[in-house]
Amino acid sequence: MARPNWDGISEASQLLKEVLLEQGLSEAVETRVRRAHEILSLKVDGAMPKEEFRELRRQLGRTQEDLALDLGKRLRQISRYENGEVPIPASIAEKLRELCDRIK
């Protein structure tokens, strides 16, 4: 199991993803666990869904590598945001929205 994060959000998110990998989950249980994961991911003030993150990057015409440079993050972290592996922090969501506002 992954090392716990002090705020608990990353750890809880990881635990839910591990549950989703288990065989034999009923469709109803899988749906509820997926929804719980989505809700947890959005609990960080200002956070955004992975789909919005990806769409904003595309609207900017930036690759993941370009956006990593723009946001001061590593390429792997941008990929983890877009794949829903980790919640998108409020600070990153805000920076991405600011970038989009500048080009409008």
Q: Can you tell me about this structure?
A:
The protein is built from 6 helices and no strands. By secondary structure, it is mainly alpha-helical.
Concise structural overview:
The protein has 104 residues and is mainly α. The chain has helices at 9-20, 27-41, 50-60, 64-71, 75-82, 90-103.
List keywords for this structure.
mainly alpha; 65% helix; 6 helices; disordered N terminus; 104 residues
Q: What's the topology here?
A:
Blueprint: H1 9-20, H2 27-41, H3 50-60, H4 64-71, H5 75-82, H6 90-103
Helix pairs in contact: 1-2, 3-6, 4-5
Please give the share of residues in helix: 55-70%
Taking the sheet with the most strands, its summary is: none
Please provide the ordered H/E string of secondary-structure elements.
HHHHHH
| Coarse structural class | mainly alpha
H/I helix tally: 6
* Strand content bin: under 5%
Q: Count of DSSP E strands?
A: 0
Mean model confidence by pLDDT: 84
Which geometry do the CA atoms define? elongated
